[in-house]
Each structure stands twice: as structure tokens, then as C-alpha cells.
Design goal:
By secondary structure, the chain is α/β, with parallel strands linked by helices. Helices cover 51% and strands 14% of the residues. Helix 2 crosses helix 13 and helix 3 packs across helix 8.
Length: 262
């Protein structure tokens, strides 16, 4: 029997609460959940278990927000993974936390590290490594990350690889926060452009990605299957997607001051 995936009920004030949460001794895997990831995990028990056990799950796509509304009756706001990366970079710079980047090809990840340091002066990139390594090299990569003494790890691989890498190795990585960021390094490096604002507001960022990367058609065809799956879950009345309980209270006297300095 599947353990429910608990999604953070994001809204306009959530970054303030998130700031307090992540700066109050938080450690764990953070998942930016989108429709394709949910659909893939439903048929991949190991991936489902890792996501359902994650310390924090954020609603990365309009599809997930729609699913939460259908299954839980709760309206949540989408929080794109690329926006969460921006939040983490500002947080890391303010707290002087070290950040390690893992994923993509070497020229791309190297350029992403360079661009991030330019965009966030003072940000400490403690190391980076490409994401195309064989399983037998995993221990070496884990050791490299641990030796970097980083607090934050961003992993950009395919859905299954990145979440399993983090979930299986988190206790050995020595980081406080580890997040799977998919293809975000392509955007951070400048290799790919992000969708225009009006498409993002309409929830059509996926359509823009398809326009610039036509090979993504195989993924887009899975969206109707995701919608069908959500209706099946609703009809079965199974509690597979729930809204997480917010366990940190926003304190205007402290968090606002700190948050505005990010």
C-alpha cells in the first residue's frame, strides 16, 4: 500500500514560512513535484517511497495544483523549481552556506556555476560535477560532495536518477538540503531560455519547452495519462496525495526582517 505524498500548501506568504523552516535546523530531501514525476512514481515503487518520505514536497506544476484541488479540495499556488533555486541561492548567500551542483554535462554545469556566482555575488559554489557517471562511481561522487562541506546540494538529472541518488545517499552527503532540479542547469547556464511571463502565468511553460525542444513530445503525451490517473485515484477514494501540515508559524518581528535581506 502506497504512503501518501504530502505536498506543501504553497501560497503568497509561504516563502516567509519556508525561510523560517529552512533556517531552523532543517535537514532533508526536498522534492519539487510535477505531473510527470507523480505519474512516473505511481508505477515506480522505489521512487514513490522516496518522494513520500521526503522532508518537504513543493508543487512545481499546474497539474499538481489541479490534482490537489480535485483530491483534497484545497487550492495551492504553483512554486516552480527554478524559482525555488533562486530562493535557495539568495538564502545561501545570506547565510554563507556552501552549494554543490551535480548534473548535466561538464561544460553546462561549469557555466551554470559561473552564471550563478555572477547573478548572486557572494554565493559560495563549493564544487560541481557532471551528472553522467556510472553507478560504480557513486561512492566517489558522494565522497566529493561530503568533502566539499556544502549545506545545499542541487542535483539535475532525470526524475528517477536524481531523486534516487538523493534518497539513497542523503545520510552520507553531509548536506542540510538536497533538491532534484531536473533540467534547470540548462536554463541557469543560458543554454535554454525560460518561457515568457505570460505563458508561465497561463501554466503553459511546458508548451514553450516543447517548442524549443520538440523531442519532449514523448513526455507531453503522458500528461493526459496523468489527468486520467488523478480521476482514477479520486474515484477510488485513495489518499495518495494530501496537503502537508505547516509546522512553522510566520513571525513578523523576526522573519520579515531577515527575509527582506535575502
Amino acid at each position: 500500500m502506497k504512503t501518501p505524498i504530502r505536498v506543501w500548501p504553497f501560497n503568497p506568504t509561504s516563502e516567509l514560512i519556508l525561510y523560517q523552516k529552512l533556517t531552523s535546523g532543517f535537514t532533508g530531501q526536498i522534492v519539487t513535484l510535477n505531473s510527470l514525476m507523480f505519474y512516473t512514481a505511481y508505477y515506480h515503487p522505489e521512487l514513490w517511497n522516496i518522494i513520500s518520505q521526503a522532508a518537504l514536497v513543493l508543487p512545481d506544476s499546474w497539474g499538481i495544483c489541479w490534482a490537489i484541488k480535485k483530491l483534497c479540495g484545497v487550492k495551492v499556488q504553483r512554486y516552480p523549481g527554478i524559482d525555488f533555486i533562486d530562493f535557495l541561492c539568495r538564502l545561501a548567500r545570506e547565510r554563507q552556506w556552501r552549494m554543490f551542483l551535480l548534473g548535466s554535462e561538464m561544460p553546462i554545469i561549469e557555466l551554470a556555476a559561473k552564471k550563478l556566482k555572477e547573478q548572486y555575488p557572494g554565493l559560495i559554489i563549493s564544487g560541481f560535477h557532471h551528472g553522467y557517471f556510472p553507478p560504480e562511481k557513486t561512492e566517489d561522487i558522494v565522497r566529493e560532495i561530503k568533502n566539499s562541506q556544502s549545506q545545499i546540494l542541487l542535483v539535475g538529472q532525470n526524475i528517477v536518477q536524481q531523486e534516487l541518488f538523493i534518497g539513497k545517499n542523503f545520510s552520507q552527503l553531509g548536506v542540510n538540503i538536497a533538491v532534484g532540479v531536473g533540467g534547470s542547469f540548462d536554463v541557469l547556464s543560458g543554454k535554454l531560455s525560460r518561457a515568457p511571463d505570460f505563458l508561465r502565468k497561463l501554466g503553459l511553460e511546458w508548451l514553450f519547452r516543447f517548442y524549443i525542444q520538440p523531442w519532449r513530445i514523448a513526455r507531453i503525451w503522458k500528461l493526459p495519462l496523468f489527468w486520467q490517473l488523478i480521476w482514477r485515484i479520486k474515484l477510488s477514494q485513495k489518499k495518495l496525495l494530501t496537503v502537508a501540515k505547516i509546522d512553522h508559524i510566520y513571525e513578523p518581528g523576526t522573519t520579515t526582517k531577515n527575509r527582506n535581506n535575502l
